[in-house]
Amino acid sequence: MSWRETLGVTEAAGESHAHNPHNAQKTAMQDNSADSADSASADAEETASRLLEALSDACRGLPITPAAVRDALALEDIEDWRKGEITRDTLAVFARSLVQRREMERGKRPTHYTERATCKHCGPIWLWFSGEVLGCPWCWNRVADRPIPRPDAVRCQDCAHFQRTDHPHLGHCAKGEPEAIAGLWDTDRRYCERYLPHPEPGDNDGSAGSEYLTKGEFAK
Length: 220
Ligand code: SF4
Ligand SMILES: [Zn+2]
Hints:
Blueprint: H1 3-7, H2 9-13, H3 21-58, H4 66-72, H5 75-82, H6 88-105, E1 115-119, E2 123-127, E3 131-133, H7 139-143, E4 154-155, E5 162-164, E6 170-173, E7 184-185, E8 189-190, H8 207-214
Parallel strand pairs: 1-3
Antiparallel strand pairs: 1-2, 4-8, 5-6, 6-7
Bound molecules: iron/sulfur cluster and zinc ion.
Region (Disordered): 1-45, 197-220
């Protein structure tokens, strides 16, 4: 839609005026444009206000503000909400999922992630089901270099961040995890939120996990 249609100028330009038609037409266009702009602005304000009200309900009892949820919504989402295609329940689910995502970013395991699983790119992880997966919700942490809580201990020798010294068993952690002066013993088991398995031949930079995620496979 053109700006003229949006502001209702087309209709104004089509009207005739008996006295000084040119100026009258121009004045009408300006008045109409201003009125339409004012009206559009008022509509936008009302939409923003109603959205925040709906989000206040959605955020009730959650450690997140309505404004933060609003900022996470795409413009298309807001438009869908305005058209009534996104319910209050859906907004509440969205708000809860944002809270969960924030906690996961800090390395906190969601309470319903009770099963041990293994992600090809992240290693041992907590999930809501057990088994082996090609990508997982923790892949976001991995790509952003954030901690991943572990259900099992790992060995430095299996980690991509382990840098061996000349000693047959010792090495250092490229992630700066605590270690003795001599370094880390490769076969010792430890709890480590920075562990990442060695990439397998043919793996790319690990973005496969993210790609998997964006398809909604793990939107829980
Ligand atoms: S990130 Fe953890 S598992 Fe990997 S080398 Fe460092 S201490 Fe070892
Ligand atoms: Zn993963």
